Structure formats: structure tokens, C-alpha cells
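User: Can you predict the 3D structure for this chain?
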Amino acid sequence: MNAPAAFKATYSDWRLVKTRGVVQVIFEVPLADSNDAYEILGGMPNASNEKWFGIAAIKVHQPQEVPESRQDDPQSTDPDGDRRIWRDVQPSAQAAMRCDQAPFWAFLREEHKSRVMNKDDAATAVRKICGVNSRAHFNTNHAARVQWNQLDQQFQAWQLRERVGV
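Assistant: Here is the predicted structure, written as C-alpha cells:
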């Protein structure tokens, strides 16, 4: 059996050490995994025998970032084909994309008792629920943006419940 060569940890902090001209990068390991990390690192640090390690990001799949189909895709595609992360998309564009999705229409019907049958109905319902007369207000009006974010989070939670059958 091969011994593990890596362990998971979360990036938690960094600290500048001016006297040594370095930055300490601090990662946290769950207590249950600490023995594995200790073994992989070779025990306690030894200043006379430095060891170098590679650190790589691990793509953690969260419901918001893992589409099951294009309709549920929380990422968007730019006209030039570049992919963007959902949270990097302008709120007005997020709302427009959601309003194109049939599952979002079902959410609005079920959770908000809206009569949504198409993307125009969805856009009207979103504006009404969020108290704006244009989705563009999500980009400039903090209260409207908060309302939109809450509505989108409700949709994501609803969608997750629908998938797992809760």
C-alpha cells in the first residue's frame, strides 16, 4: 500500500516575517487528519534541514459552482467563449441568466406563487419580488442587490432540495 503524498488543508492566514524576509503561509488541517499531515511533512520542522513542498489549490465542488446541466449552469459564457465564475458576473446579468432557466421558473411558481411560464414572466416576477423596475438596479442599488442575492440563494437552496429529494 502506498503512503499518501499529500493532505488537504485550508488556507487560513499569512504573516510577514520582516527580519527573515519571508511570509509564513498558514494552513489548517482538521484534527482527524493531523497525523497524516505530520507524517507527510516528515515530523517537526528542522531549520538545519529545510524541506520544500508544493502547494496546489484543490477545486472544491459546491452546488453553486458545479452545473448538472446547462440550464442549471451557475457559470456564464462570454460572447468570446470565456467561462466566468457566477459570483464574478454582474447581478443584473445573473438575474437575466436565471430568468432564462426553466427550473428558476418552477422555483418562482412554487416558492413565490408567481405565474411564470417564460423568461419574460420570470423577469417581471424578479423585479416585483426585489422591488425594482429594472434588473439594472441590482448593479447600483445595494438594497436591490441584497434582495437579488437572497432570492438567488433561495433558488439555489430550493434547487439542491429538489435534487436530493428533501
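The longest strand covers residues 10-17. Residues 1-58 form one domain.
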